[in-house]
Amino acid sequence: MDLPFTLVQQAGRGRGRGRRNAPRREKASGAPSPAVRARGLAQDEEALKQQQVISSSTLAPPPPPPPPTSSRIRARTTGAMSKLQSEALREAISQITNDSREKQRKFVETIELQIGLKNYDPQKDKRFSGSVKLPHIPRPKMKVCMLGDAQHVEEAEKIGLDYMDVEALKKMNKNKKLVKKLAKKYHAFLASEAIIKQIPRLLGPGLNKAGKFPTLVSHQESLESKVNETKATVKFQLKKVLCMGVAVGNCGMEEKQIFQNVQMSVNFLVSLLKKNWQNVRCLYLKSTMGKVYRVF
């Protein structure tokens, strides 16, 4: 039986719609459940986080080290004393002061720190030089001379400080013997700003060769305070031999003050050496007329 044309056309349209909708039903039937989809998203997020952590750890530069605090600086400073036994040092200081009391002198004996170095070649290695201000003046009678202008000469005269003005320096006329004699007469020199510029022209290199080139003093500073600061400052300088000595106290000081001066001197010296304690051969303490006591 033949179907009418309209029914055949409708049946064909129905079959076409069925074929077109079939894949959609298959895709719908093959889609993951909401739980599976959520688990997959969680795994993707976790993998992304791990990738970000790895990339940040490999590409980001390491954070800069924190600036040194006062406690760290203090720890490094006290660490320099680790090889110097405090008890041995205190015992040596006590012996020196007792010896001085037993044998009274007509002057106050200076206590000197004598240093022997090792593993240093003065010809090849850099010759270090440095100064440090000690907590207590080791030599109160240390001789200081002021090379000053008119104002500083007047101030020096008021406090009883030796001085030389421009005219006195000109009279030396770069005479090497006179300059050398001047350098031996005083332990240290101070100079006004107007004078210090003329030192090489007036005196030549004599004071510099002796390691006593003047320290600058401005008119804004107290001259008396500058003198006390100069007296409390000791200088370490490596020359042609591997030994040196600096004044760290006197027999009129308290033992605690001497100990503090020695401690600071040794700490500073060790900081100047290229290998720190590995360059220290020996350390001795000795008064002017007394025995030698080894402290390291």
UniProtKB/TrEMBL annotation:
Keywords: Ribonucleoprotein, Ribosomal protein. It comes from the Eukaryota. Pfam families: Ribosomal_L1. Transmembrane segments: none annotated. Residues 1-73 are annotated as: Disordered. Residues 60-69 have a biased composition (Pro residues). One of its GO terms (molecular function) is RNA binding. Residues 49-59 have a biased composition (Polar residues). Coiled coil: none annotated. GO terms for cellular component: ribonucleoprotein complex; ribosome. Belongs to the universal ribosomal protein uL1 family. PANTHER family: RIBOSOMAL PROTEIN L7AE FAMILY MEMBER. This is Ribosomal protein. The lineage of its organism: Eukaryota, Viridiplantae, Streptophyta, Embryophyta, Tracheophyta.
